[in-house]
Specification:
Strand content: under 5%
Strand order of the largest sheet: 1-2
Distance between the termini: 21 Å
Number of strands: 2
Shape: flat
Radius of gyration: 17 Å
Largest sheet: 2 strands, antiparallel
Number of helices: 6
Helix content: 55-70%
Order of helices and strands: HHHEEHHH
Length: 94
């Protein structure tokens, strides 16, 4: 949330998502803003051959549509691990 204009941020998010201001404010309170260094860390992004929590976030996010019967199945971590190519990515993020 833009700390210099929190009400403007809430208004913009509410308009973009088509929700009320209180719902937008509640959603913004759930958000976590990370520095580039935090994003590129071995624990969060991972390293070549060893994905960090990003792999868990991606596979967890994939479980939602599967649970809603919008897709046939959720991706498993092994498939996600094979799909991730993290070599040099942390340098690009920073």
């Amino acid at each position: 949330m833009n700390e210099s204009d929190p009400d403007g941020t809430v208004k913009a998010v509410a308009a973009e998502l088509g929700i009320g201001a209180e719902d937008a404010r509640a959603q913004l309170k759930q958000g976590v803003l990370l520095t580039p260094e935090q994003v590129a860390s071995a624990g969060r992004l991972g390293t070549d051959g060893s994905p960090g929590r990003l792999l868990t976030y991606v596979t967890g996010t994939g479980r939602f549509p599967a649970g809603q019967k919008q897709t046939d199945a959720a991706p498993c971590e092994d498939d996600g691990r094979k799909a991730f190519c993290l070599k040099g990515l942390s340098d690009a993020v920073q």
